[in-house]
Design goal:
Layout (H helix, E strand, L loop, with lengths): L2 H20 L1 H9 L13 H13 L3 H12 L6 H17 L3 H14 L4 H14 L3 H15 L4 H17 L3 H14 L4 H13 L3 H14 L4 H15 L4 H12 L3 H13 L5 H10 L3 H11 L3 H5 L3 H16 L4 E3 L22 E3 L7
Helix pairs in contact: 1-2, 1-3, 3-4, 3-5, 4-5, 5-6, 6-7, 7-8, 8-9, 9-10, 9-11, 10-11, 11-12, 12-13, 14-15, 15-16, 16-17, 17-19
The structure holds zinc ion.
The site of zinc ion has 9 residues, from loops.
């Protein structure tokens, strides 16, 4: 039977069968005491039975779908492809019924078979591993998927090693954290995250020069991460104790990176050194028009004696408050894959489950 015919036929049959079980047929069963079988009234066509079972599940009749798919698998006259497709459907039935152990057992059997549907089963197991944060399993499954599909999974595996490294860092196991960070870098040499993790591990170990180097290496790879990396970098620089190093490093980075947050950090350094940050911030409003520069400008302006004398101190403060409220209602991050806009950074998009696709929304007026 041609495939295109199966769906409408299955839908018509599903409708007819459900009417039967809801109506006269069900009453008859109740009267006679005979249990309704899942195959009662279903034509003896395996492909149609597969389609019908899936239709039952989509309609919420999971138990019926399970029975139909399980009965189908007991037949000896179905070919390997249909058997595997039925197994995939059965696993979905189990999943929808909340029977995850059974679903995983079916996927594992399919994955071990190396048949046409092995990759689909491994993908399902990988999703389960990610959701359960079982990162060692995820590494193994991603490599298995790579060999089945021939497409590189190294960027994804790099994230899994970063996850393992972050867990080790939180637990204070710096050697393990370092090892995973290095492996993550080998898996994806152009990724920011392994460098960032290395910087934090170095910082935790008290190796501040190394931490500064790693932060800078991360920024050289992708300057868009400046807002995430700058606070850690400044902290490492300050802990390092060499005061003159801070403006020097910020100046070096500013040669190639024109992020507003960097200009604000430079103005702040100028104020700490006893200078007046206003000219730099005023120029920054033109060269880097953004919320962060305007906010710093207003914060610096409000307490100045000449501003207070002119009666503008409160106005500056009110403007800053309005700006902060505006900031809260603006999305902080966006997924370049699906457009999801979370307030915080996620390495894996919670909406589309892609890795490394969420970036900070640029803070620049007129963009
Ligand atoms: Zn997404």
């Amino acid at each position: 039977m041609t495939t295109w015919l199966l769906l409408p036929l299955g839908m018509a049959l599903g409708w007819a069968l459900s009417r039967k079980s809801d109506g006269v047929g069900a009453r008859h069963d109740a009267e006679t005491g005979a249990a309704a079988t899942p195959l009662a009234g279903v034509p003896d066509n395996p492909e149609l039975q597969l389609t019908l079972g899936s239709l039952f599940r989509r309609r919420g009749e999971v138990e019926r779908a399970l029975q139909l798919h399980q009965t189908l698998l007991q037949r000896s006259d179905i070919d390997v492809d249909l058997r595997e497709e039925t197994q995939l459907e059965l696993a979905e039935d189990f999943q929808q019924a909340g029977l995850m152990d059974q679903a995983e057992a079916v996927w594992r059997e399919l994955a071990a078979g190396n048949g046409r549907n092995a990759a689909a089963a491994v993908q399902e197991l990988l999703t389960v591993a990610e959701q359960g944060r079982e990162w060692n399993d995820a590494v193994r499954l991603a490599k298995q998927l790579e060999s089945l599909q021939g497409a590189s999974a190294r960027a994804r595996v790099s994230h899994y090693h970063c996850e393992l490294g972050e867990e080790a860092l939180t637990a204070g196991d710096l050697d393990v954290a370092r090892r995973h960070a290095r492996q993550a870098e080998r898996d994806d040499p152009k990724a920011v995250r392994p460098r960032w993790l290395q910087a934090r591990v170095a910082e935790a170990a008290g190796d501040l020069a190394e931490a500064v180097d790693r932060y800078r290496a991360a920024l050289e790879i992708d300057g868009r991460y400046i807002d995430d990396l700058l606070p850690g970098l400044l902290k490492a620089l300050e802990r390092h104790g060499n005061v003159s190093l801070v403006p020097q490093v910020l100046g070096d980075i500013a040669v190639n990176n024109h992020a507003p947050a960097l200009l604000v950090a430079q103005a702040d350094q100028q104020a700490r050194a006893g200078g007046d940050p206003m000219p730099m911030l005023a120029a920054g409003l033109v060269s880097h028009p953004s919320r962060v520069v305007l906010k710093a400008f207003l914060a610096t302006m409000a307490p100045r004696p000449e501003v207070i004398q002119a009666g503008l101190g409160e106005t500056a403060t009110a403007l800053r408050t309005a700006l902060e409220a505006m900031e809260k209602s603006t999305p902080g991050y966006v997924c370049e894959q699906c457009g999801f806009t979370p307030r915080n950074r996620f390495w894996q998009c919670p909406a589309c489950r892609h890795w490394g696709t969420i970036h900070k929304v640029p803070d620049r007026f007129g963009v």
